[in-house]
Amino acid sequence: MKIEKNTAVTLRYKISDSLGKLLEQSDEPLAYLHGGYGNTFEKIEEALQGQEPGYRIALELQPQEAYGLRDESLLQTIPKSEFPSGVKVGGQLRGQGEDGQSHVFTVLKVKGDKVLLDGNHPFAGKILRFNITVTEVRPATEEEVTHGHVHGAHGHHH
Length: 158
Ligand code: ZN
Known about the structure:
The chain has 158 residues and is mainly β. The chain has helices at residues 42-48, 142-147, and strands at 7-17, 22-25, 30-33, 56-61, 75-79, 92-96, 102-111, 114-118, 128-139. The protein has 2 helices and 9 strands; from the N terminus they run E-E-E-H-E-E-E-E-E-E-H. Strands 1, 2, 3, 4 and 9 form a 5-stranded antiparallel beta sheet that branches. Strands 5-8-7-6 form a 4-stranded antiparallel beta sheet, with no helix packed on it. The protein binds zinc ion (ZN).
């Protein structure tokens, strides 16, 4: 069947940067609820609208269309003493930003007794290339539409 509003779409994807370097690859297929539920980026939904299983597409998304621009106010320096032990450069931890929201912070640098953290999504500010293959399309159940996401093997688990 064709992808339209309230279909559950299963796909495989690869994300590369603008130079073609692979950033992320789906080990497992990913299922999302199509039709403006915010399960995936708007530009991807637009490209998949009306397509069927087997459809493949390469899409380039600007930062504003994907994970947003970098926000330098999400860079934070904290004393090493407040830092959980065992987290290394490149490691991640969840914490509260100065905006009061919960962010995943990446450890950028450990210098002396200070630790520099970055609360931006690792893909923020990047132009991203998505390679997508649609593997399955089915009507979403009423419950999935109510919840605004897909259930089952490759979807949401409660
Ligand atoms: Zn649900």
